[in-house]
Design a protein that fits this description.
Elements (H helix, E strand, L loop, with lengths): L10 H18 L6 H9 L1 H8 L13
Helix pairs in contact: 1-3
Length: 65
Amino acid sequence: MNREGVPGKSPEEMYIQQKVRVLLMLRKMGSNLTASEEEFLRTYAGVVNSQLSQLPQHSIDQGEY
């Protein structure tokens, strides 16, 4: 990951965006998230919505192995 930062985004915003992305990818791959992880996603629902559209498509989505 690029640690130099993105202009206009604070380190906290970057952290939240990256954490949301990782949690969504874990969920998408079938991992069970903890209650605190699910609560984090609910808290940052706006970030979740923007990240969902950016997730890469994976063969798991189509039920292929």
